[in-house]
User: What shape does this take?
Amino acid sequence: MRSTFSLAVLGFAASTAALNVIPRQDYGGYNPPPSGPSSTSSAAAAVTTGPTGGKICTDLMCVSGIVNGSTIQYTLESTGKDSLGWMAMGFGSQMANTPMVIMWSNSDGSVTLSQRKAPSEVMPTVDSSPPRAASVDMSAVALSGSQPQFGFTIPTDSTSLSSVPIIWAFGTTNPGSSAKDATLLQHAESGPTKIDLSKPLESSGKPVMESSSAGVRSALPVGIAGLVIAFGLWSADGAQSKDVERHRLHLRTEEILWEIATRPTFACAIRAITVQAFIMLFSGAVFETQLLTRALRALSSTLTTFRWFEHEQSPMTVSEVLPAIAQSMGPTLRELHLPLTCLTNPSLGAFTSLRRFELDIGPDGDASGYEEHVDLIEDSDLELVRQIVYRNRSTLHHLVAPGALIWRLPSRVFEGLHTLDITSTTTVDGLHAVVGHCNSIRDFSLVLTGLHSDENLHTIAVALRPHKLPLLVAFKIVFKDNCMPSTENHILLLTEIASFLWDRKGLRRLHIQPAYYSRPGEGATSPLILVMPTLPNLTTLGLEIGCPLKLDRLILLETLIPPTVTALRLDCIFRNLHKPFQDRFLDIIRSRGRIRYLHIFDETYPESELKDRLREDPPPELELLGFGPFVRWRFPHPDPSVDSLPEWSPRWPPWKLRFRGARDFGNADWAWLMRHRLPSDNEEIVWSEPGPSSWF
Assistant: This one.
């Protein structure tokens, strides 16, 4: 059982709502199996002698142990819900003075084990004389795939095996050094729990999963990972409908905000809140703003994440509530996502301990008007943002902003970043300088809009040199608009990208769009063909291979998709794809037997048998299938021996895909593949509801 839950409160005419705690994933009534380690059966070996063990899982990681004589083998395993930086466990019930084992991987494939202790809830330091010495167990280490794990052995002690008190912690930022005393950024989640190591192992030799994992965050009456409050109904064109539902959900929104404001035991359970402020039923929003402000003040002692999305015509703006947030939780807030329009708000200066800061222009980087907005900002106002980012540089490890703002930031702020997303930029003037200071970057995304000149393409090619970004594990470069993949400068850029990516054994995620070029009279090809075999740990891949999908592109596609891929995104056009080409394409997809998530974007949405054929006979391990904006989970059949057509969940509603995140996908790799990028800015196409004849 998962230890954390989401509370979805989509009020004031959102698509769905609930006042009670619901499972953190809601896929039209179907909750898919966890994409992390699956719960094992309760059948255990009948004998009570020999090795024993146990396993518990929290939202982000699992801890398992096997007792064999005087030694315990512990395994720390990521569930894949978030990016792995480091994992830890300690032998006690609180952080203070508890011996800890902290582990992380290094760029050379090695694993560091650091035994530490802390006097309180501060960064633990190396313990030169731990009560029990632990050592890395490489037989339990697996660094590839979306669920990496670390293992170590440690002598047993006098603690009863049936109830071993432990603490656990999961960090999303790798220390970037193999040294045992390397600096650690604060964990994303942690908590105390107990593990029963007295149970016989399964017949497979694995420990039995406890039926109810107790790894809920410390002091939470209920673990609520996130709260979503929606004011107004989101839709692509801003249209409002379903007045009855909107009134009903309006009352629910008020109820939940009142509960937060007046019931401290409920408020203290909430760690993250997302506000979606859209066009509302009424012209004003005075009461709603006051109620929301009061609820936010009640969350001041516990809230770590605040995210705000707003429609340009909404009567509610973040500027009305930001002062209250800044006053009550400025020094403690860890993650902040705001629309770019508020970047000159003086309240931003109160936030001093941010780990993640997003000044974004929407989930999919719709840049209309925002580049101009940045350009019109007075230098004196821009200095405020520069100072805010600079002030948070010691804690900040994830920054998201448009290029027009990134280029104006002090170079020193990039030195400690681990994730940098440059969204919706029409210029690349400062790219070379930024990349030159990103020595700690693990995850780098560059999303470009507009028609880019040959000079811009050349600038990108020069910035991406092989020795840059040495710690890279995720790389995304996307041209949202046509960048003319047949030009010589685009060919040069792809060649430089191939050289930049060569032999990066730590790279796990890659998204390149477009990933091909085609000279007049020649078939499509790509210099990435030679690079793919040098990326042995690549599991997440996004490619645009152009149109039409004929033989040359099918051959290219087959060469570019490695057998290790578990998540695949393809942007291509299947217009008039005849059956022999359909067969070839399906053979390519099905031959990649590890694919668990497949998403195909064809902006023309042609009528084709291919969609139905893939839906009727998907790859064997497929869990999630998407075509354009329509996404469905695959139902697992209760009896695998039965030969029947696959069953699919109801499709994700449009608002769910629009504001998608790792908690929706249940997998950080899958969410990364869709980060900042849906295929079309034509919202009428992308977000239109399917008609009665729609296949999906």
About this structure: Residues 243-262 form the longest helix (20 residues). The chain is about 20% helix and 25% strand. Residues 53 and 66 are 4 Å apart (CA to CA).
